[in-house]
Amino acid sequence: MELSKRAMSIKASTTMAISSKAAELKAAGLPVVTFGAGEPDFDTPEHIRQAGIDAIHNGQTRYTPAAGTPQLRQAVCDKLKKDNGLDYEPAQIVISNGAKHSLMNTFMAILNEGDEVIIPAPFWLSYAEMVRIAGGVPVIIHTKKENQFMMTKEELEEAYTEKTKAVVLTSPSNPTGQVMGKDDLQMIADFAVSHDIFVLSDEIYEKLIYDEEKQHISIASLGKEIYDRTIVINGVSKSYAMTGWRIGYTAAPLAVSKLMASLQSHMASNPNSIAQAATVAALNGSQDCVAEMLVEFKKRRDYIFEREEAIPMLSALKPQGAFYLFVDVSGTYGKSFEGEMISSAADFATILLDKKYVAVVPCADFGMPDYIRLSYATSMEIIKEGMDRIEALVKELK
Ligand code: PMP
Ligand code: GLU
User: Residue 99 C-alpha to ligand 1 middle, in angstroms?
Assistant: First the structure.
């Protein structure tokens, strides 16, 4: 029997697959070091875990409203006001099963068959596939390293057609770690307003910015016209080390939120009630835990970048936020290791895993086939060991 053509045209997530493969090799006894999926190695902070336990004990174990509990939707409004200077009412907030689900709901709520979504490459790989799942068409802008991987006005105008429905922003960026400044955001806001299209602003790494001169700005805060066209996507996976709890959220114009809640009511009923209660504690409680993790991530960022800079044939921009180092490996093309030639980042990643047991993400699916991505959301010991092995591999290339 023929299965869904659309489902069959979608490629499973490589970031998730690499982590599973690394875990399998480790279980088989191989000394694998992984820079794979971006997942903080910290435990969820104690007061948040306790709120989850309390929720189980005090009976918060039933269905909740589809768009989330009133307490959590209010906590999100308070957070958006406090951190981002944004005014939303609870009806504009939809809580979902991770920011991934929030994004999928968003694309399903705004796209009609054939609508185009502009995505700047390098991009987090799931955006393009989600757009396709929702019947849309991803239109990729290949940004340049010399522009710090930011889109230019000319590139945006060139990508625009009458079918353009939205543009996606990720700041801080997965995979580049770059943080967008006010001028770039203003340019994109002007573009979106002038063409009357949506901006999907993925702010999931907003708390993870390492340099004082860089600050997170939500594009929705740049005026009423852009606020009315922005869908803010955020979640607790990264900033509160809560990847497994699966809570993300959107703040959007009321009409969009209503549609998302309606879709979600059929597809998922509601996000997990216990995780929602824990997220209230994360957002309303002390933010010291976030600051503490940030200090650790910054040390790791400084260390991994310094190590990478010392390795010949590799090059990267210093990440300003998130927890990824995005490395150009094209300098190794034409070289070989034990007779195996490198002619793509995928070759480099395969040889690195097979010969040195280091898992990294080759970035063809992020729209940049000459790059690998290293997640440094892992311990210093692992980062040191992994960088020693990458350095050894590159030095042994012939
Ligand atoms: N956006 C970006 C840019 C990400 O890197 C991730 C990583 N998982 C997500 C959204 C989704 O996060 P989650 O579903 O865990 O909330
Ligand atoms: N977003 C993380 C990453 O890019 C986790 C895996 C995923 O959701 O893709 O590695």
Answer: 5
Which ligand 2 atom lies nearest to the CA of residue 361? 10
C-alpha span between 36 and 362 (Å, rounded)? 10
Burial 365-381 (b: 16+ CB within 10 A, else e): bbbbebbbbbbbbbeee
Assess whether 190 and 330 both reside in one domain: no
Q: Check pocket membership of 319 for ligand 2, CB cut-off 6 A.
A: no
Entry pTM: 0.96
Q: Residue 365 CA: which ligand is closest?
A: 2
Which atom, in ligand 2's list, is nearest to the CA of 125? Answer: 9
Domain boundary among 284, 311, 336: 284
Which residue's C-alpha comes closest to atom 7 of ligand 1?
38
**Alpha helices by DSSP H, the chain:** 5-8, 14-27, 46-57, 70-84, 99-110, 126-133, 153-159, 182-195, 224-227, 254-267, 273-284, 288-309, 345-356, 380-395
* pLDDT band with cut points at 50, 70 and 90 for residue 289: very high
CB of residue 13 inside a 6 A radius of ligand 1: no
- Phi/psi at 256 (5° precision): -70, -45
**157 lies in which domain range?**
62-284
Which residues are 198's β-sheet partners?
166
- Read off the pLDDT band of 190 (50, 70, 90): very high
- Residue 225 Cα to ligand 2 middle (Å): 32
